[in-house]
Amino acid sequence: MTRVAGVAPTAVRRRRVEECHRDNAEALAAIVRRHGWPAADVVGTAASTAALMILLHAPDLDFRLRCRDLIARAAADGRCPAVHLAYIADHCAVDLGEPQFYGTRIDPSTLRPYPVRRPQTLDERRRDVGLGTLEEQMRALRLSG
Q: Residue 130: which of 69, 73, 87 has the closest Cα?
């Protein structure tokens, strides 16, 4: 649905994508309220990653911030991949107007990363969570575009 809306955007298609993101986020919120963050050690890496993808598109920033903190604890305890924290931390930082930590968010208008905190140590932080260098990420984006 998202691909179709991106290729041939219409108001109806955009609304359907927004509704889907909202509905998925509501379902995830119910799971989180009842069971906590669906960490990989409980639901498996694929399901935990799917939950992260839903979270990244959730319209409620407060919900994303609460989950970011849950993911931080789960990553620190080894219950979910550290890269999950990198993605949600960067999403929240950009949405708050703050520099991101890992450079995972790319500004679609410039095709460059949104501002990054302490850029001189960025690739070290990325390596620590299992990401390649920023240059590798940018090269991959150029090849896929």
A: 87
